[in-house]
Amino acid sequence: MELSVNEHMKKTWKYVKTVTFVFSLCVIIFFIFIISLYTTAKLFGPPPLEVPQTTVYYADDGEVIGETSNGQIRYWVDLHDISPHLINATIAIEDKRFYSHIGFDGRRIIGAIVADLKAFSKVQGGSTITQQYARNLFLGHEKTWKRKIKEAIYTVRLEANYSKQEILEGYLNTIYYGHGVYGVEAASLYYFGKRAKDLTIGEAALLAGIPKGPGHYSPFLSLENAKKRQELILSEMEKNGSITKEEAERAAMETLEFVGNETEEREQLAPYFQDAVRFELKNEIGLDDRTIALGGLKVYTTLDTHMQTIAENAFSTVIASDSDIQGALIAMDPETGYVKALVGGRDYWESSFNRAIQAKRQPGSTIKPILYYAALEKGFTPSTLLRSEKTTFTYDEGRDTYTPHNYNDLYAEGEITLAQALALSDNVYAVKTHLFLGMDTLAEYGEKFGIQSKIERVPSAALGTSNVRLIEMANAYSHLANGGMSVEPVFVTKVIDYKGNVIYEHERETVRVLDPDVTFVLNHLLTGMFDPRLNGYASVTGQSILGELSNVYAGKSGTTNTDSWMIGYTPKLVTAVWTGYDRGKQITKTTEKQYAKHIWANFMEQTLVKEEEAEFQPTDGVIGVNIDPKNGLLATEDCPNRRYTYFLEGTEPNEYCIEHIPNEDEKDVSDQEKNPEKPWYKRLLDWFR
């Protein structure tokens, strides 16, 4: 039976009311859900935005020397340091309504669903920039409902707690551009060799198209696909009014120059130094490994790239290519402690063991300046005489004996001065001094000079038999070079996090630890190794490199059966060099025994070639006099050899050398030699004249 019109109308109205009620209920529930979601997002607070970023290391002049990226190149830049063209291009192609939606674009989602239904497959995405950013930060790319729900929650939390500018900046700094490159700055450098703020419209449009599918749209993989994508983006930019039609056409015709500038080669510069920097970041500054590697830090170091190049070249120039000997060098500014150059071995890629910092070796006679500083402070002078002859010393209450040997078993067989003993590196003189001062003295003064390694309280310690690190010795000599102030090796001057905050800055603290007058006297004594006037029973130890030097240096060499050392300095630069074999093999070849000295000379001369010659200036409490180097007395005009030598005021010799003054008989003979009587025939000729 057919229903009446009235009844039909009633049923239709009832249906409409039901649908309206259900729809209204859904809308209310939806709004309650959204309000609840945003309230919860506010309660949970902002999600952390820390993402892996490349840590960059800079030399002292701002040059990039290396990066730590774990295979992913990332740099963080502020939004105002990104080209507006790239920002507009990205919004045009990725999220047109970015500034108006609340994290989700309903129109885009519906459009994507319709497109997918028509194609019976997923052909179009509906994700906004905020959704993609949430995915990049916190999630993977698996297509599961669990991941989608998490993505929605994180999207809401981002929108509820961060501004659109912050979200856009984060997105642009985290999006993947292919080839291990993340973020617009790294991508701009990689593809075009320029900063993100300097991109042209054409470059920006091409770059903005890559994240859709880096394996498909990278110009290095398919330039054709990249250009098609670029044209689409330029068209979208024209539609939304960010560029004109003419600008779009010019950008499409723009000739693009691709660079493909990988940064891996930067690791080639000073790799041992960079390892030392990472060690300081962790152990001295207190940063964890992940922050160091992927914290997006800007680490400003003390490295002088010019000096570093000279140092590395010195090793390859001096050491024979067929030699297996190893070596290390460290150069420091004695005023600041800044490490200006460091070589930890001959080939980092064969062995990353840092011999400049990690290896502990016998320093040989390079330890003697510390011993003689103590001696000068306790009453010795440059003229103090001790006998140099083969000697067996008894110690430990007569229970032990020790017999030091000079190089080639040569001895003065008589008394020599401290000045000459230091220049010739007389071992007997050093051990006598060590035992006279007491065997605790050298160890105590080693600590005063900043040496942390233990110096044994035995007679042989005066000859450098206690193992130390090269960096410790460079630091110890820096105390002398700077006039007696405390100093420590410094690799890092400042660290800035990815947000631009300074999280560390080196502050120099100096304390006087050495007497300035004693320090100057010792500095002048240490120039003696390069002064042939101090030759005696042997030549001064710097004789073999005198022809290579043009500046005034103080220094000391050291030799053991397995180690060769050379440490020398000016008031501006301290350089320590070690050569030897890793496993303690003896150095038997004469040429290999000289490597350390020649590397040091090569480095110092090239490094200081443009510097004004810097000499140590006498302090107020010292006095200089000419002495005879052999006996330490005041020299006279008759002394065949004189050297101007500094003493602590009041300790200079007051007796003149009389060894070379001729006696009366010698004077008569000398006068006769100067004015011999002429033969009779010459006197006769003179009479006729």
TrEMBL record:
Q: Name one GO biological process term.
A: proteolysis
* Keywords of this entry: Carboxypeptidase, Cell membrane, Cell shape, Cell wall biogenesis/degradation, Glycosyltransferase, Hydrolase, Membrane, Multifunctional enzyme, Peptidoglycan synthesis, Protease, Transferase, Transmembrane, Transmembrane helix
> Quick check: keyword Coiled coil in the entry?
no
Listed GO CC annotations? outer membrane-bounded periplasmic space; plasma membrane
Chain segments annotated as transmembrane: 21-41
Q: What is its main location?
A: membrane
Catalytic activity, reaction form: Preferential cleavage: (Ac)2-L-Lys-D-Ala-|-D-Ala. Also transpeptidation of peptidyl-alanyl moieties that are N-acyl substituents of D-alanine; [GlcNAc-(1->4)-Mur2Ac(oyl-L-Ala-gamma-D-Glu-L-Lys-D-Ala-D-Ala)](n)-di-trans,octa-cis-undecaprenyl diphosphate + beta-D-GlcNAc-(1->4)-Mur2Ac(oyl-L-Ala-gamma-D-Glu-L-Lys-D-Ala-D-Ala)-di-trans,octa-cis-undecaprenyl diphosphate = [GlcNAc-(1->4)-Mur2Ac(oyl-L-Ala-gamma-D-Glu-L-Lys-D-Ala-D-Ala)](n+1)-di-trans,octa-cis-undecaprenyl diphosphate + di-trans,octa-cis-undecaprenyl diphosphate + H(+)
Domain Glycosyl transferase family positions: 62-237
Subcellular location(s) per record:
Cell membrane
Gene Ontology molecular-function annotations: penicillin binding; peptidoglycan glycosyltransferase activity; serine-type D-Ala-D-Ala carboxypeptidase activity
The Penicillin-binding protein transpeptidase domain extends over 327-604
Say yes or no: keyword RNA-binding present: no
Return the similarity comment.
In the C-terminal section; belongs to the transpeptidase family. In the N-terminal section; belongs to the glycosyltransferase 51 family.
What protein does this entry describe? PBP1A family penicillin-binding protein
